[in-house]
Structure prediction request, 577 residues.
Amino acid sequence: MADLSMEIAGLKLKNPVMVASGTFGHGEEYSELIDLRKLGAIVTKSITVSPREGNPPPRIVETPAGMLNSIGLENDGLKKFIEEHLPFLAKFKTPVIANIAGETQKEFEELASTLSKERQVKALEVNISCPNVEHGGMQFGCSPVGTEEVVRAVRAATDMPLIVKLSPNVTDITEIAKKAKDSGADVISLINTVMGMAIDAETRRPRINRIVAGLSGPAIKPIALRMVWQVAQSIKLPVIGIGGIMNARDALEFFIAGASAVQIGTANFVDTQASIKTIEGINEYLDRKGIKDIKGLIGTLNK
Amino acid sequence: MHSDLKYGKMNLMIQEKARIVEHQQIAPNYYKLTLLSHYISSNTLPGQFIEIRVCDFTVCPLLRRPFSIHGTNKDKKTIEILYEVVGLGTEVLTKHQIGQELDILGPLGNGFTIKKKGKIAILVSGGMGVAPLKALAEHIKAPARYVFMGCKKMDQVVCEKDFSKLGFEVQVATENGSAGKKGLVTDILNGFIDSAQPSELNEINIYACGPKAMLKAVSEIAQQKKLNCQISMEAYMACGIGACKGCAVKTTKGMKMVCKDGPVFPAQEIIWPI
Prediction:
């Protein structure tokens, strides 16, 4: 048994495998199928100040080796998260990372300060990278100015480990990552979905109601890996790798590229056991390679 | 409420490998798949579905595909899936042979609520919509039982005998007139309702499954005549368990998920078009 424990900006994890925001709800549904206590952390579905109904259907469609989604941050809102979902999640003793999505700087502040008072929340992940909303989301994360605005506001409102989740839909990911760091981020997580589109040629209609949507799944893994590599090279902050990780082998690539942890997203839909199998597979790999500690694998690309 | 069989969600879902015990083409593009599943065969309610990972060694196709449960056999511990080849996922599924295993997740969703009140049960299917309705038919005890089946053409008319054996009167409509009446299944439904006595209308319970346009038409008929009607919806799905919020449908009670809140909904709750 290799040592899989990890500490990222004060956030203590028994292993570095988390489930990604938006792919795991608030854990209720998956708790019937997997042991949530085995996960490194649970990143909640994005929480907004007010409840959101989300985008009109159709919201998802499969594309080669991936899927497009345009959910539009459907969620019950901050109040209900604290009253109903958080107490449920707290039962499992697995660190809860609250993913927050504001439409404005002020909303981000409110989300951060309110959730920081909750003992069960161990870190915040700031969503400035959702491609599927009118206001907020990627609008912030696609410019250094927007990134700074939000990250500074959240930093001022919380002492918790602050993870900033970046969008790949930018010209230079390292520029945004640097700005996030300079504005007070403790950790960078990336990538959110890649903007994409699908059309039904028979009807000439878009497959997704909002036409443009976010691509996830194995199709985006090479993009994610490249960006994790670039960010890990360019700034001295821990990086969480996300994007198309289906199994341990995929996850290991991210550690080698410089990630300190990974998040499993779309794979949860394909195999409810994907996160657990990933943890087991990482362990087997480390044992086989004679590596005693996962930390010894981070950023070890042989060039 | 009467003592309706409220088939809400009361059984836990599982993910397991299920062996294929039968797999045959029953019509052009239509297949019947029988899987061995001790748990699901005895813990399924009519109208529930499973998600099948049609190929587990590649990422294309990627997502699980949802399939209504067509029937269960508690003695043989099997479940039956009836499906139509509509794309890559179902095309890949046809390649699987007897003896192979499939990764399945289920039972999922909420089934039909079988109404105790009402002497007339009408099942309305369009195309592959017969799939869950056969499972439902086995549970219906109303004295007068009808199945109105709508299909594009004759070779898509399946399961007639299954319904007849269960004491259902089967009426068929095909779009090209190659079997039954030429026209739409809603023509049959309208004809039935028009010739019914006013007192009989109160006795009717409609259970429908099929393409959206058909479900919309059936819902409108039911609403006009104030008939009790449940419809089973179809949607692109990812997780199948209510986590991803992908399979949304607009309802009078807000946005609902076809996978978790449905797939069966009271017809009057759906806001068309969807």
